[in-house]
Amino acid sequence: MIRLILPAHLRTLAGVGGEVEIEVAGDATLLSVLDALEARYPMLRGTIRDHLTGQRRPFVRFFACGEDLSHQSPDTLLPEAVASGVEPVLLVGAIAGGSPAMPFVSITRLRVRSWLYFPAFLIQALRVARQAARADGNLAVKLLRDRRNAFWTGTCWASEGSMKAFMHAKPHGPAMRSLLEWCDEAALVHWTQSGTELPSWEEAHKRIQQEGRPSKVNHPSAAHTAHSLPAPTLDPKRELRFK
Fold first, then answer.
1. Does domain 2-92 have CATH number 3.10.20.30?
2. What is the pTM of this model?
């Protein structure tokens, strides 16, 4: 069984709401997977590969296990994690303007300003992380409990649009309004990349410090105002991976 994540417009065309699961006879290669996908969903023929040449469309890309497989031979064996159904194949389509969409990474850091708000914050953080892992277009989710009641989240999405749709849905949308009062430090950073792997927390800290920005809070600390964030504590026991 092979798992595939299609871009939104192809999911709509195929009439599916989430991941697609297909059976492949023989070796799992990009060629055999696409053949099986088009056999099951004939309406997708010509959208991913050219009808005549069978070549990948210019603004379609394939990702799996954090690697861009777009330029590999269609006969190349897919990673064992894909062949066994542990990891999906991600098909990324074009965005407005003709440029290829790429996986979109979002990193946030929040610090709870008082133990009074900590229980409610923790409950909401876990609910939101689980919501993100189930959201359409989500590729990966991890959470780090740092020192001094600080929390880091890292998510990877098929596109910026899928991330924004998640942001406005419950429980994330209402929870964000509570953070204005609960937190005295908040920062975020976004970027696109060729692979689907989430960055290390070291890279996340570097990015958020150099390229990120503060988010609004009602009681900002001096560190928040200066956008001077300490490096996170790197302890595997402090990290939760949801996807």
1. yes
2. 0.67
